Amino acid sequence: MEAVKILEKRDKIDWEYDEEGDVLYLSIGKPRKATGVDIGQGVIVRYDEKKKEVVGLTVLGVRSKLLESLRK
Prior knowledge:
single chain, mainly beta, five-stranded antiparallel β-sheet, elongated
């Protein structure tokens, strides 16, 4: 299996929340182009194929998932 770098450095994590779309964007370091890999349950990992490292996450439906979990 090929090695993948996940948070090897202590880079700043930038984030942005789109309230209308209910989407949370997390970027490790400065946001950059990457390939999106859907890992299920509304989570997309953003991956730099050249450097073989995770550069961010996109989480769909954050508010709705939180509210659903709090109701349980």
